[in-house]
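Worked problem 6 (solution included).
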Amino acid sequence: MNNYKILFTDDEADFRSECAQQLRDAGFTVVEADGEEAAKELFQKEKFDLAVVDLVMENADSGFSLCYHLKKSFPTMPTILITGINSEMGLHFSTESKSERSWIKTDAFLNKPLRFEQLLYEIQRLLGCLETGHH
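Solution. The predicted structure is:
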């Protein structure tokens, strides 16, 4: 079994630790960060296979900023942006259109409230685990 290492960044402690534990139970190694700055420190010291990043943390655009920096440093590392902004403010982001892909540096967008199965599916899809049936 390939032990993928995931950086999970979210300023909501309960949500972050719950998701991180579910991912650990699914066989992943998970390192948690409570915001953009903490995540930047971590990815300068450690190598990750994938990052899950909340959109709104210290700033309204912390997730966009962090994904940009991650992609700049590790262009092939998949990122998943998660946000509750769609349900809270009625804003909608996606990576469907070319113009949005040009400035949203993420491989997938998931909306909160998040079902764990959704998150797990996207992680497995981006890491190429779906074809083989294991991670």
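Discussion: Residues 87-95, 99-103 have pLDDT under 50 and may be disordered.
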